[in-house]
Amino acid sequence: MSSEKIKVGVVGVGALGRHHARLYKDCGNAEVVGIYDLNPEVAKRVAEEFGFKIYKTIKGLAEKCEALSIAVPADLHHKIARPLLEMDKHLLIEKPLAVNIEQAGELVTIAEERNLVLEVGHTERYNPVMSFIDDKLEDVRYIEARRLAPYPPPRPGLHPRGTEVGVVLDLMIHDLELILHMVKSKVAKVEAAGIPVLSKTEDVANARITFKNGCVANVTATRINNPMIRRMKVYQKNSYFSLDYQERTGFVCTKTETGIAREDIPVKDHNALFEEMKNFCNNALSAKQTGRMPHLKVPGRRGLEALRLAIKITDLLHLHNEKYNLPDGENEKLYQQF
Predict the structure, then answer these.
(1) Does the first or last residue of the chain, that is N or C, have fewer Cβ atoms within 10 Å of its Cβ?
(2) What is the Cα–Cα distance from 208 to 235, expressed in whole angstroms?
(3) Which residue, 249, 121, 242, is CA-closest to 177?
(4) How far is C-alpha 250 from the geometric centre of its chain's CA atoms?
């Protein structure tokens, strides 16, 4: 890669987008053109903190950029991303790619037809623990994943961050993408349950996924837990991995002739979001310079696959609630209190 820099911008500089803007400034392969946020006070605060130019419209920002991050609420992803792809801009979109299959599929199709980099922000793929196990996965047979987080704080005039979608699309989808990456088999059967507690959408959910190769994954996610927990156990023949994505630690236990050998995973710690963004910039530069699409770690089509599974789980938990007359998103009064 040459010393050339890709011109980047950030759409949405709230809780997560602020970090996109901040980290792009530290990327040696990026030139930050500016930022846009619907809330002028948020944009002003971030611009003053990091010395960025504020653009009054997304189109105005995009006209000066070659690549952009989209870090807005999930239900706005398609509305914002489609015109940018039609302007031939490379995009890094925070997960989920969109809120339904039709919208996500449309974004993927446009990007592929125009030979544009479209990456989805499944940041756990850049977690340092994944670097160790990626080439050690052989025949995964069972996975146990737990992703528990505190309820997001209130925002004046807005729903709490992330609750525009249910916990499956908000949190569980991280583990679904990881599981699809590890198992590399088609899904055969899905069972799911979940209910709303503090928001209009499900806040706690569990899914049992059976793959066509016989592997089973049991996945739990909740956004009403303290402290935050992001753990996964992966079992395969003669060994298993215990991974802690929150603490960026883990160990592997392997069957030997004399018993079981345990080895701590050697982690070269790094900022996963920073690595994701550097990689996105490299990919955008490579596509620009060569005219060919480089290998993408989490391309739009993989984000679409994860979304497809997440929506399947969401649909099934709603059917479960309907069958057993359980709460299913009608807690409007309780939601407004938080």
Answers:
(1) N
(2) 15
(3) 121
(4) 21
Q: What is the tens place of the pLDDT at every residue in 235-270?
A: 999 999 999 999 999 999 999 999 999 999 998 889
How far apart CA 91 and CA 118 sit, in angstroms, is 5
Q: pLDDT per residue over 3-55, tens digit each? A: 799 999 999 999 899 999 999 999 999 999 999 999 999 999 999 999 999 99
Question: Which whole number is the average pLDDT over 288-298?
Answer: 96
Q: CB within 8 A of 79, min separation 6: which ones?
A: none
Report whether 234 contacts 143 (CB < 8 A): yes
Region of 214 on the Ramachandran plot (φ > 0 left; ψ -120 to 50 alpha; else beta): left
Residues near 64 by beta carbon (within 8 Å), at least 6 away in sequence: 7, 9, 33, 34, 55
Question: Closest Cα partner for 28 from 12, 52, 5?
Answer: 5
Domains of the chain from N-terminus onward: 6-124+271-306 (3.40.50.720), 126-270+313-337 (3.30.360.10)
The separation between CA 217 and the C-alpha centre of its own chain, rounded to angstroms, equals 19
Q: What is the DSSP letter of 202?
A: -
Whether pTM > 0.85 for this model: the answer is yes
At 296, list the tokens.
Answer: 């993408």
Number of alpha carbons in the 13 Å side-chain half-sphere of residue 111: 31
Output the pLDDT for position 123.
Answer: 97
pLDDT tens-digit profile of 149-206? Answer: 999 988 777 788 888 999 999 999 999 999 999 999 999 999 999 999 999 899 999 9
Separation of alpha carbons 313 and 213, rounded Å:
19
SS3 68: strand
Closest CA to 104 of 319, 299, 313: 299
Q: The tokens of 122 are what?
A: 């499944």
Token pair in block for residue 332? 């409007």
Q: Which pair of tokens denotes residue 155?
A: 């925002």
| Measured distance CA(67)–CA(45) in Å, rounded | 23
